[in-house]
Design goal:
- Strands 1, 2, 3, 4, 5, 6, 7 and 8 form an eight-stranded mixed sheet that branches.
- The radius of gyration is 18 Å and the shape is globular.
- The chain is built from nine helices and eight strands.
- Helix 1 packs antiparallel against helix 3.
- Helix content is 40%, strand content 15%.
- The chain has 282 residues and is α/β, with parallel strands linked by helices.
- The longest helix is centred in the last third of the chain and has 22 residues, at 202-223.
């Protein structure tokens, strides 16, 4: 990739990743195409689909993928069934066959088959470090990047086991710059300007700890970017994004309001692009 080109950087966010679909649609409608796409977790799913052929039509196809999450029951199942899965596996609540099957329907076989250079990150268990998938089987790589601990099983690739990339690099701006990008469009669903508070309840402890790690990495990476790098962080369009300790973040099976989330982010991102004179209708 030649220096100075454009990267789409897609962060993690679970079910809130639907906002990224609207952001992607706005970018592509406004004539902004990526030279590189890097993604983490749900951002790896969204990014891989767009990398098949960055276009408005593909953004529409991605919205359909999100509808299939609900229709095909990727994370459905009664509490009894989920507990039975946990009792049997001792590590996770859901199998990954449904998600893997969906991804096989919409993605090519290998990363090298994508129309745009694409990489996604996962956390290596054995090496306790981030691992970037640059080539090889695409669905395996995306599944590894999206393997939320406790929810989905770790993904084994080449004798090594991987968990969700958000553990090690939730918003991978530094990777895009390492690969030569100088204009970054960052798609993430959090709100960094909202101050954290000390946890008050047991379930808040893990959320606060993860949020500290996520923010620390992202803010540090932004501070270390070269002066010739331009970063645009696209808005979700939500007037009051979820708080870091909001229990809704634990509702990973929540596929309600997907269409509204996409519309909110699409409208807000279009306004952002127009106000700054970025891109232009293709």
């Amino acid at each position: 990739m030649a220096p100075g080109e454009v990267a789409f950087v897609l962060g993690g966010g679970g079910h809130l990743g639907a906002h990224e679909v609207g952001m992607l649609a706005a970018l592509l409608e406004h004539g902004i195409a990526p030279s590189l796409i890097v993604g983490t977790s749900v951002g790896a799913i969204n990014g891989a689909v767009i990398a098949t052929q960055p276009s408005v039509a593909t953004a529409g196809r991605l919205a359909g993928v999100w509808s299939r999450f609900e229709q095909e029951g990727v994370f459905t199942g009664s509490i009894v069934r989920r507990l039975a899965t946990l009792a049997r596996t001792r590590t996770h609540l859901h199998g990954d066959d449904a998600l893997r099957g969906l991804l096989r329907d919409v993605l090519p076989e290998r990363i090298e088959d994508l129309a745009v250079p694409f990489q996604c990150v996962a956390a290596s268990i054995e090496r306790a470090s981030e691992h970037w998938f640059e080539q090889g089987p695409l669905v395996d790589a995306v599944m590894a990047s999206a393997a939320v601990p406790g929810i989905l099983p770790a993904v084994e690739i080449g004798g090594e086991h991987f968990f969700d990339g958000g553990i090690v690099n939730s918003i991978p701006v530094s990777r895009a710059v390492e690969l030569g990008a100088r204009t970054l469009y960052v798609l993430h669903v959090g709100r960094l300007d909202r101050a954290l508070e000390a946890p008050r309840w047991p379930w808040e402890v893990g959320l606060v700890a993860f949020e500290i790690a996520r923010r620390h990495r992202f803010i540090g990476d932004l501070a270390r970017l070269p002066d010739d790098v331009t970063v645009h962080v696209l808005p979700t369009g939500r007037a009051d994004p979820p708080r870091y300790n909001d229990l809704s973040q634990l509702r990973y099976r929540d596929t309600s309001n997907i269409g509204e989330r996409i519309r909110q982010a699409h409208a807000a991102s279009l306004s952002y692009l127009v106000e700054r004179g970025l891109g232009g209708a293709p």
